[in-house]
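In response to reviewer comment 3 from the previous cycle, which asked for concrete evidence that the modeling workflow produces usable outputs, we include below a single protein chain processed end to end. The sequence was submitted unchanged, and the resulting structure tokens are shown without manual editing.
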Amino acid sequence: MCELFCLSSRHPTRATFSLKRFAAHGAPDGRNIDGWGVAFHEGRDIRLYKEPEPAGDSPWVTFIEQRALSTGLLISHIRRATCGANSHANTQPFARELGGRMHLFAHNGGFDEIAARFATSSHRFQPVGETDSEMAFCLLLDRLAPLWQGATAPTLKKRLAVVTEFAAEMRPLGIANFLYSDGEFIFGHGHRRTQADGIVAPPGLWFRHRHRGATASAPVDSGVAIHDHHAGEAQEMALLASVPVTAGHWRPLAEGEIVVVAAGELVPS
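The workflow returned the following structure tokens.
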């Protein structure tokens, strides 16, 4: 199955955070060999790198690490193709503009018969590729679009209500683990995934919060270093991943659970 990962932090953090370790999930001799993508939010816009080749064998991963980009919000995806050709258009994360800002979506799983559901009505957002994941993203944005028509951003309560309803509609169609970001909040939905024993069961997503004090040194956690810490200021980080990618305590999300993170912390909902 595909692998999801995201990082949210209070202060900008080096983009190398967990990227190399995460890319190993997509090594050429591994299961996830059909492409990868990583997106960094920069205000209302994003930097998006993706290619339909194995992440573990990609010079672009080395390039991204050498660029040492800093960001407070990162989403990455390693693809195992189950729907749609192995192409750039079908490689995640997917990105669209809504409300004058870029939105991101990455999905792990599959949605049966979503194409038939998508075809039953007209849509403002249309898929570029052929994947069920991109169709789901377009459906989600169609539901969110009315909230973003005003001069101000909608409340978190309204955004979460739409995402919650959307997730409930998607779960009966298949496996529905996803990360959705509107540049301010990341919504992580955990469902089910194929576990190590071959059984399809929860958890489909894991969460970890990490706090580092103002005087703490930059540690290396299972090969993952924390960089660009603001001197004299505490750092907060929130991580979501298909499987834990660092040492430390990770909490499995319950089946159908949605968490919201922003600025490195879990947002009460």
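The mean pLDDT is 84. We consider this sufficient to address the reviewer's concern, and the full set will be provided in the supplementary archive.
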